[in-house]
Amino acid sequence: MLRLSQATGRVPRGSMAARDSRYAAFFGIMALLFAGSATVTAMWCLSMATMGEIPMAGGWTMSMAWMPMCGQSWAGAAASFLGMWVVMMAAMMLPSLAPTLWRCYRAGGGARPTALAGAGYFFVWAMAGLAIFLLGAALAESATQWPALARAVPVAAGMVVLIAGAVQCTAWKARHLACCRQAPAGIGTAWHQGLHLGLRLGLHCLRSCAGLTAILLVIGVMDLRAMAIVTAAITLERLAPAGPRIARATGGAAIAAGLGLIVLRIGPGGL
């Protein structure tokens, strides 16, 4: 049977069954990880919503995610945010990352290098989350002390959305998106090869998602609706055949939304 299969160029049934079994097991694990991270993220967001938000000068409210809880140190607040951030990134990125990791597995890497590629990918996002918390906490602390700065935040948020939309339409964005969309040529079997691939892919992804991540942060990092919209945009631009056009269309929508937010704040009845 094996000779006949080689002569005819057909894949043996046993090989096809083994491949299908690995495919089902791999994506079953990915589905469980996604469901678990999405559930934890939703519970975390609902828990934060019950704590309320801090009303600020300028008519907006600030999430408690940027401030320590009662009796919590700043180090504890950073650790809590980082844990939430990594779980949230798993929920948001796994739908578009899973096919890439499967291609890594099929390219000959095996389970261990593929797992390390995933670990390297999320390590990049964890470091980004730490930097985001430090910047966000500093801005939150400053806004609570300086009302003039707090009043400028809504207009600044509109400008961030506007700029983020413009970034979506740049060649820089297109280059990093292409790196995220292309299949890995090979991963190798050594542990450092998988880790290196994950780090490289994570850096490309971080740059490609910079605009959409900025939009999420200014709209509401704990807003489930915003997370769902950004997740859908990231997944479509990565996996859909017309991904680059979707990225530009998303950028156009963000530019319009940013302009609307600015006009709303500086127009009659605004600032």
Proportion of residues in helical segments = over 70%
User: For the largest beta sheet, what order do the strands appear in spatially?
Assistant: 1-2
Shape: globular
What is the SS-derived class? mainly alpha
Low-confidence stretches: 1-7
Q: How many domain modules?
A: 1
Order of helices and strands: HHEEHHHHHHHH
Q: Please count the beta strands (DSSP E, at least 2 residues each).
A: 2
For the CA atoms, what is the radius of gyration?
22 Å
- How large is the share of residues in beta strands? under 5%
Please, what is the average pLDDT? 87
Q: Count of DSSP helices? A: 10
Distance between the first and last residues' Cα? 78 Å
Can you characterise this structure?
The chain has helices at 2-8, 13-50, 74-109, 111-145, 147-168, 171-181, 191-208, 210-220, 224-239, 243-266, and strands at residues 54-56, 60-62. A two-stranded antiparallel ribbon has the order 1-2. It is mainly alpha-helical and 271 residues long. The chain is globular and about 70 Å long. The protein is built from 10 helices and 2 strands. 80% of the residues lie in helices and 2% in strands. The N and C termini lie far apart (78 Å). The longest helix has 38 residues, at 13-50. It has one domain. α6 packs antiparallel against α7 (191-208). The model is unreliable at 1-7 (pLDDT under 50).
